[in-house]
Amino acid sequence: MMRDQAESLRSMVKKNRSADFQVISITSGKGGVGKTSFTVNLAYLLQKMGKNVLILDADLALANVDIVLNEKPKYNLLHLLTGEKNINEIIWSSKYGIKFIPAASGFEELANLPKEQQMFILNSLQDIYYTFDIMLIDTSAGISESVINFCLAADKTVVVTTPDPTAVADSYAICRIISNYNTGNMELGLVVNMTENEKEADRIYNATNNVIRKFSGKTIKYYGCIRKDEKLSKSIRERYVLASRYPNSKYSQDLEIVAKAILEGSLPEKKESFWKKILNNWINLKFD
């Protein structure tokens, strides 16, 4: 059975995908750090920069992307898994033009999907008939196997943290785990959200980077910081994209700098595809 599944999955990675297509996973060690708002506002700004962006809400049982965008999609990943709809039928376009694949909130069984169903979702993504430059994966918080798998398979992984001591400690943990298992060329970077100033964010990054270097011999990139902004809390309560309504706010200006930092640099000439890395991780990755 496993052999048949592996062969089926190997055949899927043979499909062509644009060499410029980037997959960026956005994750965090704990909830409450503003990860989903970051993802949605990042998608908006990348779109303004001329990129065609798709968000995959990979917090399968606690969907939030639709809430932040103030949208009520008719269908979600549950309809894909049950066979009621195909992948193109569940993609939802928001009023901001941002396309996203909705997760299903409140379905406990989706929190721990068997690997076969995880791979069914990933396989389905290749049948999307839209052309995208970037897929942002808004993972669930924490260090579950599916989260680490998404992060390792991406071209870049952004870990979002805040100055809160528990958030910093959890960001250490997830950065360390990802670094230990990252045997490829995935770029791992940190964003310090809700910070008082750049000095505070620099201190958090340097401390995190020192921990990672000590335990794995690797370093992580600093994508930047986003200062506290009361407008963000208001945008979440009233459900609008802050970067759209207040492009000159502190949050929007800082995030634009972060977005450019994430896009910096060219992809490797012989980049291994997201799909192939997901497959290899699914077959080979063993957590201690």
Q: What count of helical segments does DSSP give?
A: 13
Instruction: Enumerate the strands of the largest sheet in spatial order, edge to edge or round the barrel.
Output: 3-4-2-5-1-6-7-8
> What's the average pLDDT?
85
Helix-strand topology string? HEHEHHHEEHEHEHEHEHHHH
Structural class: alpha/beta
Task: Tell me the helix content.
Answer: 40-55%
- The count of DSSP E runs of length 2 or more, i.e. the number of strands, is 8
Low-confidence stretches: 5-17
Strand residue content: 15-25%
Termini gap: 25 Å
Biggest β-sheet, characterized? 8 strands, mixed
Instruction: Report the principal-axis shape.
Output: globular
Using only CA atoms, what is the Rg? 18 Å
SSE layout:
Elements: H1 2-12, E1 22-27, H2 35-48, E2 53-58, H3 65-68, H4 77-81, H5 87-90, E3 92-93, E4 99-101, H6 115-125, E5 134-139, H7 145-153, E6 156-161, H8 165-181, E7 187-195, H9 198-216, E8 221-227, H10 230-238, H11 242-245, H12 250-263, H13 274-284
Parallel strand pairs: 1-5, 1-6, 2-4, 2-5, 6-7, 7-8
Antiparallel strand pairs: 3-4
Helix pairs in contact: 1-13, 2-12, 6-13, 7-13, 8-9
